[in-house]
Amino acid sequence: MSGAVPSPTPAHALPKSFRDRLLAMIGLCFVLVMVALDQTVVGTALPTVVAELKGFSLYAWVGTSYLLTSVITVPIFGRLGDEHGRKPFILGAIFIFTLASALCGFAQSMLQLVLARALQGVGGGMLVATAFASVPDLFPDTRERLRWQVMFSSAFGLANAIGPSLGGFLTEYWGWRWVFFVNLPVGVLSTFFVWRYLPRIRHAEHPPGRLDWQGAALIALALGSLQLLVEWLPTGRSILVLGLLAALAVGAVITLIWWERRCANPILPLDMFRHASLSPLFQLSLIMGFCMFAVLYYAPLMFQGGFGLSPKAAGLLVTPLVVCITVGSIANGRIVTRLRTPNRMLYVGFACFLVAAIGLAFTFQETSHARVVFTMMMGGLGLGFLMPNLTIFAQETAPRTQLGIATAMLQSTRMIGGMLGTAFIGTYVSHAYHSGVDTTLQNGGLAQWAHWLDDPQILVNPQRAAELHEAAALVGVDSLALLEQARVALVHSIHGGQWIVVGVMLLAFILVRRVPPLKLRSRRPAPVEEGVA
User: Fold this and answer.
1) Where does a domain end: 170, 195, 211?
2) Lowest mean per-residue pLDDT among 190-199, 334-343, 482-491
3) Tens digits of per-residue pLDDT, 487-508?
4) In which element (H, E) is residue 202 found?
């Protein structure tokens, strides 16, 4: 990294030929595929991993450790990418992510796997913070960027569509370690394309400032304690522990605001949160993350646990949602550039997702699969309209020198929304399920069987269900009726969770009205280049 401050150069710093831009985007798509695949294939392999490494107490931390470190690193490296240029951080992130994937594959205990996943989350957070912001570096013209961003959406949709099946295939025929080793060739390919074809571009003419380490530490403390709070909230931890975590998160946020107002080079520019256009976009991203994860996590649980479908059948019902994210993104690129008021696409996106949430709230076991597929398609189209537009609007509104941190904050708010949605809806579903099961069993004089049905996992775990059948047969109790009562309670509780999503979605329509009318225009500032290699 050169210590000298480069002089501004004309726009020829950008790759001009179609071939060079295509190869640079292919490199970024490989990066996105690597992260997206990892998030989808691991879940399929986890039961096998736990069976071999024998560490069920750390089961949740395989996912939590990754999410915790990635949420913390996104805003930090979003800012660093603005200051120093994004290319070196993308290359560093690929190296860290690939190395951590190898360490995950070689793990000999659950603790080793959790620690390797935490390192993998650092690389994943760096990639999310820098890769998305590299697209407007390559394509300053907004209309052109929308056309090229279809590649991102297609890569994301493809990775999510094949991820669960690929994870199951690798686990069954090659072993669970290959779920992590599959990242190695993708990492090598992405390194080649990014190193060779992605230019290194800085938009700031001033020297890179000193990193705001105090602000970075406060961000880590605030997001880390918040992540632990939402993870532990549904698990019945003591009120004292939860209260201390909540106080720590609030205290860290207050101290962060105080510090960033006084810091000469803040890692988190607070003026973005007061910006008339950016502030509602961050809030909409938070809501989208809340609602998206509330649907993605609990629709499959309702299909399998509530309706008794096999994992394969449930996966087929969810697949249209993932596929239509790509379809919606492609259609959005064609439509939004032709609208005088592109903000209208936000209304369309939230309306489509609202239809999906309402549809799920009215989905029962006897509901036709065609109607369920339509519901999932509407949800996918809604996300396909929302995700690229929120990103484009934020990048179009933010100053070029803050493009990375603005994009990173948009991703961070969506991830935080997902954390909150998963925890809040999870707590509600768990409470409503237990309440429904207990009431039904007490009314039928079967309260002694409540401990068997306390965990809805019995509805998707054949071994646990077989144990219930054996125990019930010994005393002449109809175990099938018990399971059916549990299924009804689970479906009812998930329906209640979807009505909460509907209420939150209605709030989104109010926030969309606060987004000032935006015109998608061409912006071709002269960047600063520090070499292409």
Assistant:
1) 211
2) 334-343
3) 899 899 999 999 999 999 999 9
4) strand 201-202
